[in-house]
Amino acid sequence: MDDAKYFKNRKWVIKAGIAFLVIMGLLTFFSNTIMNYSLPQVRAQNPTQGSISESIKGSGTVVANKQAKVVSSDTRLIDQVNVYLGQEVVQGDILATLVPIKESEELKQAQSELDALLKSKEQDDLNNSLIEYDYSSYEDAIAAAQKNLTDANTALVSAQGKDAAVNTAKANVASAQAALDSLNVDLQNLNMDESLIQANISTYNDNLTQAKINFGDGSPEAVSAQSMLDQEKAKLTAKETEIASKNTAIASAQTTLSNAQTKLSAAENLPAVADATSNVVSAQKSLDAANKSLNDQKKRDAVAQTIASMSKEDRDKAITDAQKKVDDLTALAENTTITAPASGILSSLNISSGSDTSKDMVLATIDDKTAGFTVSIIVPNDQASQLQIGMSARDGSEWASPQDIAYISSIRIDNDNPTTNKKVILSLITSDGTDGNYFFYYSGLSLTLAMNNRSMQYQCMIPNSSIHEDGEGKFVYVLQQKTSPLGERYKAIRVGITVLATDGTNSAVDPSVLNNQSVITMSTKTLEDGKQVRLAYSQ
User: Fold this and answer.
1) DSSP H or E run through 96
2) What's the rounded mean pLDDT across residues 124-147?
């Protein structure tokens, strides 16, 4: 009976132990699985052997070998611009239209000279003596205009200080009015005092008369009344003096107030700044017009003096030249278009609708695409030693096509830094020889070019995506593998590297530091030295 009971207890213990082991196994499995999914997922690949053609990059500005400039022949107003920067144009294309004009100042002067020559020919007055010209009326007009301008500028300065002047004048008026009011109050009090004294005098005078009647002229009573009457009369005299003085002060205060009010009115009547400014502009125009009238008359007189001293042959030639100048200027005045003098690419455009041109102003520049383009790049001497004339170059910008777009045409000393640098001049390839333009360029375009040197073989090449850099230098994370009872475990281990060469995609490094270990090329999270990771796949 005891044996059966013991056996039953033993079976229960065995079952409990088995259940415990199963539960621990499940917990271990799921905890590892959960932990693995929380780890950074990485990809890795082994270093490879191969060759790298290292690029030497540099930037420069495109320059056309041949250009045509569009130059303004006169001062004109642009009506509308019909082209845009970088546009390809054909000789004769209309670049812009001009606002029509009747005649320019230059045309007016040329016509005036021609008229003077023709008049001289009609009069056949070739031996006129030189004339003394009187310009006093012009000079008087200039002096008057100058005075008006000076007055207008003075008024403008006053207008600019109008607010301050008005405030000051108002304060002075208020002060003068307050002083006058105070004086008037004093005068009123004095007048009241005077009336009281006069009433006393009347009373004392009556007392004196009664004392004389009752007691006689020499009586004490009469003498006392006379003394009091004399005292009041003295007070009256003093008060009348005060009143006269106060009236004088009031008259002066009224004058001060009147002057202050006059100044306030003058300040309030000052012109507004906008009006004063307009008057200055108008006065300046009048002065300019007066000066111009004098100068124009002197020019006409100078022409007349010159004509008077000419021979018949010189005069006839001058008439021919003057007529041609008038005809040319008339044609220019009547012209309403600006056309392209040559075919090519618009590399500069210095006009816009509503803008003014001036004589000899460069309105636009046209690059002759058939003559080619060049780019100059400065490189250090050690890099220049790896280059040679005829070497090709490609677009060095990101995502650029690997196709060659230029070749080295010259390598020269850099004049700015002759001991350290070289100037590499590259000719751009603009045509493929069959369909015309293959690449599009214009002067001023910034271009980055990658020049290829010779290719070299390397034992250890890794993708650039695996390379990191911080303050300590460049490094990679290698994949460290460890076998455990629960499976393979991986860690990211930081390893410092030295890059021997790169081509923008792969880099060659010292193979001794990697020992053929796989380098991590991608991670879903930021890596740290010694941190455990999980592997997506390896190559």
Assistant:
1) strand 94-98
2) 75
